[in-house]
Amino acid sequence: VQLVESGGGLVQPGGSLRLSCAASGFTFSSYGMSWYRQRIGKARELVAALTSTVGSTNYADSVRGHFTISRDNAKNTVYLQMNSLKPEDTAVYYCNAWFGSISYWGQGTQVTVSS
What is the 3-state secondary structure (H, E, C) of 27-77? Predict the structure, then answer.
């Protein structure tokens, strides 16, 4: 099983980034997919989640309205479109796949929002 994140980097406040997470080694379409982040000195927190079937989404209050999670089951990839980025969005962002009690994690990608 592999989850490989990409798309992180340095961006100015107000800018945008799109994170990608390429999955392999499991039946991607059957799994819910989420993005988490961990800021320095803080616990890992859920940013956005997307179910496997109905496609329901859930967002942290702090990102609702300016982050969007989506998936492409044909490409086994989940995305996080991040707009209007703020310095407090600076964190390591992790991709997560879940199915019942099963949970897989990526290695994380750094997002830094700074002028």
Answer: CHHHCEEEEEEECCCCCCEEEEEECCCCCCEEECCCCECCEEEEEECCCCE
